[in-house]
Specification:
- The protein has 100 residues and is an alpha+beta fold.
- Helices cover 31% and strands 38% of the residues.
- The protein has helices spanning 15-27, 67-84; strands spanning 4-11, 32-36, 39-44, 47-53, 57-64, 93-94, 98-99.
- Strands 1, 2, 3, 4, 5, 6 and 7 form a 7-stranded antiparallel beta sheet that branches.
- The longest helix has 18 residues, at 67-84.
């Protein structure tokens, strides 16, 4: 099966807080997911979003079966993170995406 992957990064000194908040938000919408220590994931119908909190950046990786689904997942994850991080003026920089 072909998979499309895209990795995004958001500079923040509160990466763990935002990562866990994203996972908690999506799992409250009855999606499968979990957060432990500095890593988490959420399984969407369109694909998978993984999160890793580093010291000064939240790394987000989305994986889906099509470029369109990858773009949709990037949009959903980014919109929620930016909204949650309004006070910190968070932004996300995504790579160009790749086919695996």
């Amino acid at each position: 099966m072909t998979e499309f992957t895209s990795v995004g990064r958001s500079a923040t000194d509160r990466a763990s807080r935002y990562g866990s908040q994203l996972v908690k938000h999506f799992t409250h919408k009855d999606l499968e997911g979990s957060w432990e220590d500095t890593r988490g994931f959420v399984r969407f119908s369109a694909g998978l979003a993984e999160f890793e909190a580093l010291e000064d950046v939240l790394v987000m990786r989305v994986v889906a079966a099509s470029e369109e689904d990858t773009a949709r997942l990037r949009d959903v994850v980014e919109r929620h993170l930016v909204r949650f991080g309004t006070r910190d003026e968070l932004t996300v920089t995504w790579d160009s995406g790749s086919e695996n």
